[in-house]
């Protein structure tokens, strides 16, 4: 008896579980519906952000009311009588009143232009011209006499001309010699040759009256101190030079070039 009760209760439990499973499955299938999708995309306008998925069969078309156009009858105006055009009559323009010219007073002529006075004026001018010419001749003669008596003759700067002439002679005679003497004694510095340096040095110096050099300056550098110093030392080494009549100022360029 106990075995039958156990079997019956077990079958009841199994059937109940199967029934509940079927009921749950049916309820889940019935409740499944398509949701409404709302799109909040920034790129789209607000009017297109909501998308409704209701089938089109449920949407009822509302009939649009057609606007009834009212016919307006035109208003007919009664005919009006035509007025004849007015004729314009051209009236002659009134003659402008022109003032009557009055007689101008007669011009008075000066008596200074009479022939007698003109002749006297010409005689006076001729006399004045002769007198002025005579005075000018006298003044010129007197001026020359005064200049010879009182004005001293200007002194010619013979000293300056002599100095320039002496300087020119010295440069023409000794400049080539001084230049060649300096260039012959130039030796390429070992440091500059090792570094591969080359360039042009322009040196200025003063030759005093005893032939020695003074105030040696590099007015245009080669970009290498070894080359600049070599040019200055060479000028000091080959001095003194031929004695100038006055202090001489020379500018000599020296070019250093690697073969």
Keywords summarizing the entry:
259 residues, cell inner membrane, alpha+beta, TolA/TonB C-terminal domain, elongated, membrane
Decide which structural class fits the backbone: alpha+beta
Shape: elongated
Order of helices and strands: HEEHHHEEHE
Question: What percent of the residues sit in helical stretches (DSSP H or I)?
Answer: 40-55%
Q: CATH superfamily name of the domain at 160-256?
A: TonB
SS field, number of helical segments: 5
> CATH topology of the domain at 160-256, what is it called?
TolA/TonB C-terminal domain
Describe the protein's architecture and organization.
The protein has 259 residues and is an alpha+beta fold. It has a domain at 160-256: TonB (TolA/TonB C-terminal domain, 2-Layer Sandwich). Helices cover 44% and strands 12% of the residues. The strands form two sheets. The chain has a three-stranded antiparallel β-sheet with strand order 4-3-5. Strand 3 (199-207) and strand 4 form a beta hairpin. The N and C termini lie far apart (134 Å). Its main location: membrane. Residues 173-259 form the TonB C-terminal domain. InterPro entries: TonB, TonB-dependent_transducer, TonB/TolA_C, TonB_C.
């Amino acid at each position: 008896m106990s075995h039958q009760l156990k079997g019956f209760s077990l079958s009841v439990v199994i059937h109940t579980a199967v029934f509940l499973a079927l009921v749950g499955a049916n309820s889940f299938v019935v409740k499944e519906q398509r949701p409404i999708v709302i799109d909040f995309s920034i790129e789209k306008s607000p009017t297109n952000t909501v998308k409704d998925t209701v089938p089109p069969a449920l949407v009822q078309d509302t009939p649009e009311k057609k606007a009834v156009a009212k016919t307006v009858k035109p208003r007919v105006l009664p005919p009006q009588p035509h007025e004849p055009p007015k004729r314009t009559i051209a009236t002659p323009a009134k003659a402008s009143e022109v003032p009557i010219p009055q007689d101008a007073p007669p011009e008075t002529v000066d008596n200074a232009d009479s022939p007698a006075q003109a002749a006297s004026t010409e005689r006076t001018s001729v006399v004045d011209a002769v007198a002025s010419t005579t005075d000018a001749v006298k003044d010129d003669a007197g001026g020359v006499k005064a200049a010879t008596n009182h004005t001293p003759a200007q002194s010619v700067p013979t000293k300056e001309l002599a100095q320039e002439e002496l300087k020119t002679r010295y440069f023409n005679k000794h400049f080539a010699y001084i230049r060649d003497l300096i260039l012959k004694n130039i030796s390429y510095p070992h440091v500059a040759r090792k570094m591969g340096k080359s360039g042009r040095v322009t040196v200025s110096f003063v030759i005093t009256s005893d032939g020695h050099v003074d105030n040696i300056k590099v007015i245009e550098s080669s970009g290498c101190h070894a080359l600049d110093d070599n040019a200055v030392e060479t000028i000091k080494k080959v001095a003194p030079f031929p004695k100038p009549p006055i202090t001489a100022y020379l500018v000599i360029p020296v070019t250093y070039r690697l073969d």
